[in-house]
Amino acid sequence: MLYYLFDFLEKSFDFPGAGVFQYLSFRAALAAILSLLFSMVFGMRLIRFLKKKQIGEDIRDLGLEGQMSKKGTPTMGGLIIIASILIPTLLLAKLHNIYIITILISTVWLGTIGFLDDYIKVFKKNKKGLHGKFKVVGQLGLGVIVGVMMYFNNNVVIREKVDTTKHLTEADILNNDCKKEAADFFEVDEKKSLKTTIPFLKDNEFDYSVLVGWMGDDYSRWAWLIFIPIVMFIITAVSNGANLTDGLDGLAAGTSAVIGLVLGLLAWVSGNFIFADYLNIMYIPNTGELTIYISAFVGSMVGFLWYNSYPAQVFMGDTGSLTIGGIIAVFAIMIRKELLLPLLAGVFLIEVVSVMLQTTVFKIRKKRKGLAYAQENRVFRMSPLHHHFQKKPLHEVKVVNRFIIVSIMLAILTIVTLKLR
CA 95 → CA 21, 89, 101, 328, distances in Å? Predict the structure, then answer.
């Protein structure tokens, strides 16, 4: 909204300083600052309100050190995160941008699902919260929305690179040695495409439509049949991964802040003609505007950590964890970097894998050798993985710090993939 206001002031009245709002870097920095300040100010007021209403976490005793001391800690702090993302974005971003519209819908959609889950737990006193199948249906529903938007919306386009040497004659090459010096440039025309980025390969683009190549010459028309289910799976997996990671003070927020920084960088270079050409990556027009949103996201994570770091004054609950996981997934899909998520969001991945492995092996061993044997021979002392390290025992703060360090290492490796092929 402020963007449109200052744009009007500049064009109509040549208002001094109004032009600074045209700069993406300025609006991104301002979004991060506003989000950080808002989450810290609004956060304290919400915590006081939650304490007054006695809206606290009901802790189940898992035998972990210091666990029961957290009983009664205010939950539903994800409202702080959501509000501190939405407000700066609404103020500073171009709201007619299809990518901004989609990510805002995703934020509200998943925030609503998480809020319903927390509401049932806290106010209805039902520890199970919203039934798992309804969560999954909601996540899959968002996947359909995002998949349809990416495939059918005419504003979701890319500009591919062309090799200028293709337009040179043999004489040009022999006489001027143009072949080695010629640079790649992007096509002028924008086009619909289901191409995405695949890491570590020289030609680092993969087209989902090739998966339905067996359907005949007109196979690209049916690519949505494979693309939309893939989007649904990614959103559901990453959202649940963040939800599982939210088990220690500051863990989900800290790792998500690191992931958000890298996604912001990837959005910046993917939406910038010069950087995309220099790095030889896919140029996606209009995605640079997503930098405003992800800056607010990172600011909200850091601001939330002010109250969520050990010992936590507030928990994000499913209102926050389901939302931040879904945001990361949708954002990565829109900038066509979703195949980097297993690396970038590796902490989420290992948390999910640890639960799946623990459950699967336990069931197999129980069936073959009985309950007692299965209980005594678990893969991990406890899952998700962060609880395994708590059982070793390691202090909660040390576990969180080490997981964040791992997340930083994975983030650096993700950035390196831009050139490591």
Answer: 14, 8, 7, 20
